Structure formats: C-alpha cells, structure tokens
Amino acid sequence: MALFSKKKDKEQVLPQNLPAHIGIIMDGNGRWAKKRALPRSMGHSAGAQTFRKIARYCSDIGIRHLTVYAFSTENWRRPQEEVDALMKLFEEYLNEALRDFKDDTIVVKFLGDRTAFSPKLQALINENEEESKDREGMVLNIAMNYGGRDELVTATKKIAEKVKNGELSVDDINAELISDSIYTAGQPDPDLIIRPSGEFRISNFLLWQSAYAEYYISDKLWPDFTTDDLDEAIAEFSTRNRRYGGV
Ligand code: IPE
Ligand code: IPE
Ligand code: MG
Known about the structure:
Helix 3 runs parallel beside helix 4 (119-132). This protein has helices spanning 29-35, 40-61, 80-100, 119-132, 148-164, 175-181, 227-238; strands spanning 21-25, 65-72, 107-111, 139-146, 192-195, 214-217. The protein has a single domain (19-148, 190-238), classed as 3-Layer(aba) Sandwich (Undecaprenyl pyrophosphate synthetase). It is of the alpha/beta class and 247 residues long. The two termini are 32 Å apart. The longest helix is centred in the first third of the chain and has 22 residues, at 40-61. A 6-stranded parallel β-sheet has the order 3-4-2-1-5-6, sandwiched between helices. The structure holds 3-methylbut-3-enyl trihydrogen diphosphate (2 copies) and magnesium ion.
C-alpha cells in the first residue's frame, strides 16, 4: 500500500486535474532482486519492463510529459558489472524503440551529459531524439547520466560564457533564463514526483524544476509498481492543495 494515500477511483480524477508532468525516480530494482536471491542485473531487467508499461500507460491516459530517472551522475560508483548491465539494457530499449515504435506518438528526449556514454549508445540516443522529434504525443524524458547539480553547473557555465562574450549582461540573469538553459528547456516543471521503494529523498533529481512539485512516496519496489499504483498516486495528487507560497 502506498504511504499517505487516500484511495480514490481513477474515474474521479478529471482531465484538468491530471498532472501535466510526472517525474519518477525508478528506485528499488536492487532490493527487488535481493529479495529473490537474484543478481542485481535481473532487478534492472524487471525494472525496465515496469518502465515500458508505465510509460505506455502515462501516454494512454493523457499525461503530456513524463521524466524517468534511469541513471544518475552518481550511479557510475556502482560495480562495473552492474554499470555494464545497465548500459546493455539502455541499448536494448533504445534499439527496440527505433525498430518497433515507428508509428508511435511519443517524443523521446534525454536529460543529462550523454558524452560519457559509448559511441554506440550516444548514436542511439541521438537517433531516438531525431526520429521522434516531430511527433505530437507525450514527451518522455529519459534522465541518463543526469544529476541536478551537474545540470545547474553546466547551465551556469553556458550563461557565464555568454556574459563573457557580451551576448548577455549580468542583469539578464533571472529564473526564466536558468529554466531555459537547463536540459528541460521549454517544458513545464514537474507537478508530481513519484519515488517508489520507500526512500524519502531526492537523490539529485530535477533540483531546479521540482521547486513546487508534489511528492508521492510509494513503498512498492519499482519492478512491482503497477498502473494501479500510478492511478493511486495521481488520485492522491488531485486532492492536494497547491499554494505556491500564497494563501
Ligand atoms: C534503481 O534501482 C536503478 C538505478 C539506480 C539505476 P537501484 O539499483 O538503486 O535499487 P536499490 O535502491 O538498490 O534497491
Ligand atoms: C536514484 O536512485 C537514481 C535512480 C533511480 C536512477 P539511487 O538508488 O541511486 O539513489 P540513492 O543512492 O538511494 O540516494
Ligand atoms: Mg536505489
């Protein structure tokens, strides 16, 4: 059962109360595998299946933007074997997306520093973006080698460079400019951020963008997360009173 949830039927959530942008920290794959005495890589494979289901479902129910946290700038600290297994899964998914989703409506984008990936994976990332860029459906942001701090450092350097060469003055620097200089430029901030696996932390996800996001923590491990769990998170979200600092 999800924490803090007030179980409601999905029919009760009116389209105007759906979050426009959902972020998901896809956490708990390792613990899922451990519970079954399986290698951690099997947990990641199971998590990838959940990702496929949930992304499709979000698109089907009319979510406009979905951002999934797939690999953080800190995840390189894991054993090489686990990192390799994750890179292999990314390649499999991105190949599948190119091969099988020709008539899809989903726009695929990547958040993070892609230059750290193998040339093959970088090519797949670029091809997926290129192939899907003119579609009109949900924008699926895959955060890979993504870190909120890294994103802000990169944006700061970009802005400083422009000030240095006279394209911008210091007075031009404001919140809008920063929003336009980060990976999610042009997209709305997340309304709802879901973290499965019961952890109450942000782990460097969408630091700037989540200023007024609503959090939802589920104690389900990501591979066990279902479309019903997503419905529950959305229903709970629709009952929140967002004040943005006002009254
Ligand atoms: C999330 O699951 C996947 C990645 C971080 C790539 P974890 O691998 O962090 O799973 P736990 O937290 O160890 O259970
Ligand atoms: C966050 O999960 C990153 C992803 C889900 C990709 P982690 O498992 O890396 O986060 P911590 O280490 O528990 O904070
Ligand atoms: Mg984890």
